[in-house]
Amino acid sequence: MKKALLALVAIMTLAACSQEEPEETERVTPVETEEVREGTFTVDREIIAQVSPSATSPVLPETPGEITYISIEKGDRVEQGEPLAEITPTQGDSQVELQENALARPGSSSPRRNPPAPMPRKL
Q: Quick check: pTM over 0.85?
């Protein structure tokens, strides 16, 4: 039985080796071509993100009042000391005017004076 099995394996091995290999056919991949031309290549992308500044600076006016003119726009770079806006002080809001009004009250030693008209001030 062993001999028969061994003979069968030998015959199968010889039969497998004697088979001719199939011919390789050339593989054709369809492609499209285009003539080369000069131009610009633009890729537009829309990226959604949230950004925050690495540092912030508070803006504090010297005198409270109404902003009458803003000299910068959103995104502008500014230097220290550069005017950002003009403020017209409201009546009685500036410290000078408050002190002058306090001195002009009845019982005060100085005569009452009308405060000067408010002048626009720069931040």
A: no
